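User: Quick one: structure for sequence A, then sequence B.

Assistant: Sequence A:
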Amino acid sequence: MSESQHYYVPHLSKWPLVTAFGLGVTGLGAGATFHSTSWGPYVLALGLAFIAYIMVGWFGAVIQESQAGHYNVQIDRSFRIGMFWFIFSEVWFFAAFFGTLFYARNFSVPWLGGEGAITKLSTNPVLWPEFSAEWPLLTNPDPNRFPGPNADMGPLWLPLINTFILILSSVTITYAHHALLAGKRKMLNIMLGATIFLGLFFVCMQAYEYHHAYTNLGLKLSSGIYGTTFYMLTGFHGLHVTIGSIILLIIWLRCLRGDFNSDNHFGFEASAWYWHFVDVVWLCLFLYVYVLPLR
């Protein structure tokens, strides 16, 4: 890291313009795909290809600037503040979905079941007088249009195994961080590689869990509020685990070629912060989605 106190200002770059174009194409393709147009998937694929190109090119340029010694303590501080606010925004992203689940199971479903003085006079007897409020909601108010699942997804077996996997991955990446600070490159590469393996193993286990839920339990996105909240929370978390695994894979490849040292390793730290955030979200999700719904 450079000792200069001058804030590094990069040269004119094409990446902001390319990013704006790529995001625009991706948004157009996604909207067209959701509206079942014939050309939507092709435009969406093109947009995602642009995003991949941007991620490789722009981050590659930042890595080259860092390796060239252009960055100093001020820029390192800026990166840390930026990563903090990014994770802060992610916290509220998941808080919105947790809030949706909280409102559904603590207010909407009880009201539809006749709980409360006002709903007893209107909502329950007028709409669905035979509806019984419970959570997980296996019998929906209108089961003909929205058939409920055969059973709920309990906390044992797959969810519990995935919990142990992510807890263990937090341990391995912490060991990798300490190994980097101590200059133990071999241990760093082993522990970071183990973290990536655990992350990908988690994703595979979640895919198997989804298959089990769809085929054996009848738990689908169309299964009412229980199915939609379950897949929105677990699906977005699985997406974050996938992204985190890709980030760690890139950091691991950089470690193998000798990047980072005890004084200059923010790229590694940022990925570790993100991974710990993903682990904490899963613990909250495991308790609130899998454990607490038990009757």
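Sequence B:
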Amino acid sequence: MVSGPVSNKRNIYLVGPMGAGKTTVGRRLAEARRMEFIDSDLEVEARTGVNIAFIFEKEGEAGFRRREQAAIAELVQREGVVLSTGGGAVMNPDSRALLAAHGFVVYLHASVDHQLARTERTDNRPLLQVGDRRDTLLRLFTLRDPLYREIADLVVHTDGRNARALAREIEDHFVRPVATPAS
């Protein structure tokens, strides 16, 4: 028996902090549901021809967020997708509204300790390139957690769990609508 919300929306959107597993879980979920997987960060990189770090360097975070919002505005128009968003996508009110209106939003909640462990060996996250990583992750979590929760149809705790179990939990709450024949 499934408890909690069950959705009839056609898309699944994963939000949450860096290191929560949005890309890994999203790929597994898309494969299991036979849906297209899209990572909004990779989409921005494909559209610009440069990596996110370069965009941050040349345009700052505000420039990147504008590009991210434009990509999200287009991506939510598709049907049958699992979309993994960047950790800061929720900072834009328009992006939050689009995600909430067009899909089943899943907040992959990860503790700061979990995020720290998952991002310790990476150098491709511009927001973690300055200052103390723990302090940065804690500041971002404090700022963004209420925004993730604001649009979430489902909150899934990721600490100590593998992608398969997380995808299964999300699937239990997502029921893809069946097309009705035209009369």
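The helical segments are 22-33, 40-48, 52-75, 93-102, 112-119, 133-151, 163-173. The beta strands are 12-15, 36-39, 81-84, 104-109, 154-157.

User: Thanks, that's what I needed.
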